[in-house]
Amino acid sequence: MRPRAAGLLAMTVAALLALPPSAPAKDDLRFAPGPPRDPAFLELVNGAIDRGVAWMRSRQGTDGTFGDGPSRTSAYPFGYTALGVHVLRSCGAPADDPAVVKGIEALRRLYRSGSAFQHAETYQLALGLLALEAHFAAPPDEKEAGGSRYGKPAKPAARRIPAADLEWMRSMAHRICSAQDPCGAFGYQGTDGYGGTGRRGRGGWDHSNTQYALLGLKAARRCGVDIDTKVFLRCLEHLLDDQEPSGPAVERRETDDAGGDRYGPRSRAAGTDHARGWGYRGRSTATGSMTSGGVSSVVICRGELQGRTGYGGALDGRAVKSIRDGIAWIGRNFSVTGNPSAAGRGGSGWHYYWLYGLERAGVLAGVTWTGPHDWYLEGARYLLGAQESGGGWEGGGGFSAAAPGAGPGRGNLLDTAFALLFLKKATFRVEGAVATEESDSSLDLSGAADLDDASFRAVFDTVRSRFARAAEKDRAARAADFVRLGVRALGLLVLDLEAEGAAEREVAIDALRRVTGQTLGYDPAAPQEVRSAAVAAWEEWYVTRRRGLVGDAAAGRFREGAGPR
Fold first, then answer.
1. Could you give the C-alpha distances from 320 to 184, 317, 361, 366, 411, in angstroms and in order?
2. N or C terminus of the chain with fewer C-beta within 10 Å?
3. Domain 39-432's class?
4. pTM for this one?
5. What pLDDT, in 10s, does the model give residues 287-329?
């Protein structure tokens, strides 16, 4: 793309954040984080979160680092401190909170020293990226969210990341990429370079490192760091190949709008999937923690690859089936009192690590039900009863040492952090809200106008991917989804006219023709210099008319209204 035009159009697209949302579309797919809950139940959850955050604050030392035990020390100072900052910001602490400021300063200091990564580099770097992403995102607006942390999704503010911190994130992301094994999964330690040459001798690869690597890379991508899509493609192919090849049939459940009780909705049958999980490495025994990590990992890879050259309908179909079957495994083996194992041994350790994985899988996959289980309700009820009197949690099975004795100080930093992230539903949920959707109905895009640019782009990519895969007879209905997204979608379609692949360009001009009735002489197969002239005409058309365009979702068109140009 010509740099000058790209800059003008990108700024114009960003400016459209202030435009009003397009009309809601009725459908069973929503951006909301979950069903309505009883206010009294939410009050209990909010109180538990507040006590847990207070306990987390007690684990921060005067140097800003987080740790466990009386000395608050840890073999993983960078990772524990990043986790502490991530939890505080995710639970509503403002960016200028002294504990957050000290934590960020400690992370910078530890990163510069280079001494923080003697062990578990991938985990620690991923947590660092999650902490910075949370730090540079606005805290939820409680009033806008309907009076609780679990109501309507709050409008996220655009991230304003200082150049030095963005470069810091880029450095961490590239170090994670260097830990990718040739098989596509990730190991503990990378090389000094970047290009997928992970050190097999430094711990090999496993699905635990892999899920954290992808969480960190996705956080970096949302903040504007470029990652080669081949990283996600290799990982997706590995995950699909390493999932159990077969499993028993499990009834899929969805929310029944016809009824419920004070805690949440009832469910109804919605189809059949087959329980297929993941083990720690290869085809080892499937567990809840690794299967939940597999589900969230496939969702992340799918979100990064949709609409990209080389990611076709066949591979996407495998990814959707993988997600649904992973959720089916969780439903069939469901437990909140321990990390379930397919071997039937009642639990495989890493209890709270599993609960946090369950939250990520449920949120990213956009599901309320895993089999017959309302995963959030059952998990939250368990955690409410398991919280120590001082505010912490201690489930065992982690690296972190518990604070000694009973009473106010008792708890475990990792377990408490995982419990809080579960209760808060802290995982960013945009891509997950559309992750398992494969029906022929229209998406509910009523919340799209309030998303920041990176999140909006992720939803746009889903809409574009569905449009590209649709048969000719269905494309008019799919084009209406661009109208529901609002005028910002037009700007992104115009940007796609200069995509490298001819197929992507064909999709863009076909969508523009359907929603505007024009082509402005653009031919996706024409030489670049010919296309450039038509693109310039489209850019001028968009910039001069965008404020006067009105979406007519029923007709699937944008029309010129009475607004100023």
1. 19, 5, 13, 12, 38
2. C
3. mainly alpha
4. 0.69
5. 999 999 999 999 999 888 877 777 877 888 888 889 999 999 9
